[in-house]
Amino acid sequence: MKIQKTYQHTWEWNGDGEVTEIDVGFSEIDRETQIDLNHSKSRKQDSVDQHSSGWDRYMDGFSAFPGAQ
């Protein structure tokens, strides 16, 4: 691993009062980029389930980029 960059921010969906944290990390491994995403501090299970499903679809979209594995 050579380079690691991180980005952190808070998130509130549609003003519902639940403020969560999102941490995204980018690491170079063997000349490729690894993305690590952690969405935390959800208080409601339905919120966890919906965000998990949404993030899965979002991250799967990266596979459409040329050279993605």
The biggest beta sheet is recorded as: 3 strands, antiparallel
Q: What integer is the average pLDDT?
A: 85
By helix and strand content, what is the structural category? alpha+beta
Outline:
globular
Helical fraction = 10-25%
In the predicted model, the low-confidence regions spanning at least 5 consecutive residues are none
Could you tell me the radius of gyration in angstroms? Answer: 14 Å
List the helices and strands in order.
Answer: EEEH
Span of the ends, CA to CA:
18 Å
Number of strands: 3
The tally of helices reads 1
Kindly estimate the percentage of residues that lie in beta strands according to DSSP: 35-45%
Strand order within the widest beta sheet: 1-2-3
